[in-house]
Design brief:
Layout lengths: L1 E3 L6 H8 L11 E2 L2 E2 L8 E4 L11 H11 L4 H14 L15 H13 L5 E5 L7 H16 L3 E5 L3 H7 L2 E6 L2 E7 H7 L4 E6 L9 E7 L2 E6 L5 H10 L4 E6 L4 H10 L1
Parallel strand pairs: 1-6, 1-7, 4-5, 5-6
Antiparallel strand pairs: 2-3, 7-8, 9-11, 9-12, 10-11
Length: about 260
């Protein structure tokens, strides 16, 4: 689930409330279907937006320490730590001090500290911060594998393209209040314009159904009149003898929905 909101909306505050770092002034928070209990922390992995590592200590020692804080015995903590260092191609830095690593590699170490104890819930606050495209793709693959294995993942990020590729649900707040919640595909449909994306050799200026056109990364975006259905445009293209390579109903990008909700 994506957790979204503009700067200052209260996202990090809410994540800290979920983790019982802060206590709510009113209302209640349920984890695992009940009120938060102290032992629940062992089953939740939290990756904060700010660094939370002991920078003067060696990487392997720091990770083993964090895993043991979740109740994992020392020997198992070492096995889990080495497994994840190898999984994220970081085994060669295990004896480096954290402060000797680049920002991106420190972020990967912090991610390992979050997942190595095998928690049931992962709360990830801007997990891709400081990562290059190769490492972003690597981390996305790991997150997808964790989700497929049954983990519950709450992802807070401003990178809307990653939300669209990773998440099934969206929860958005503004000024500390919910403004959007539900299935991502349904949200995009509810906010979509009457439009289609087409790639063809047709002269769209001759089509009576089109209000205006604009370039799109996949072809041409055709915004249609209110009484027009996509099938009407497709029929017109076929009647005009156009070669159609692509024809699809356009979804409003999540970024556009985000901006509209904030501005309103």
């Amino acid at each position: 689930m994506a957790f979204l909101g503009p700067n200052g909306a209260g996202k990090t505050t809410l994540l800290r409330l979920i983790m019982d770092i802060f206590r709510p002034d009113s209302g209640s928070i349920e984890v695992f279907g009940r009120g938060f209990q102290k032992e629940d922390k062992a089953h939740i992995g939290y990756l904060p937006e700010e660094r939370g590592l002991y920078t003067r200590q060696k990487v392997q020692a720091v990770l083993e320490y964090f895993v043991q804080l979740k109740g994992v015995p020392q020997r198992q903590a070492r096995i889990k730590t080495l497994h994840w260092l190898e999984r994220l191609d970081m085994l060669d830095v295990k004896d480096y001090k954290v402060q000797e690593l680049s920002k991106g590699n420190q972020q990967k170490i912090q991610f390992i500290a979050t997942v190595a104890a095998d928690p049931e819930i992962l709360v990830l606050d801007e997990p891709f911060s400081g990562l290059d495209p190769v490492n972003v793709r690597s981390l996305i693959q790991v997150i997808q594998e964790l989700a497929a294995s049954g983990k519950t993942i709450v992802l807070s990020t401003h990178q809307m393209n990653l939300v669209e590729s990773l998440c099934r649900r969206v929860f958005m707040i503004h000024h500390g209040r919910q403004v959007l919640y539900g299935d991502l595909e349904q949200i995009q449909k509810a906010h979509s314009e009457n439009a289609v994306v087409v790639r063809s050799n047709a002269n769209y200026g001759n089509c009576p159904w089109i209000v205006h056109t604009m370039a799109n990364g996949r072809g041409t975006l055709l915004v249609l009149k209110e009484n027009c259905r996509p099938r009407d445009v497709l029929a017109w293209l076929l009647e005009a003898g156009a070669d159609v390579e692509l024809f699809e109903c356009a979804k409003t990008p999540l970024e556009e929905i985000f901006i509209k909700m904030v501005q309103h």
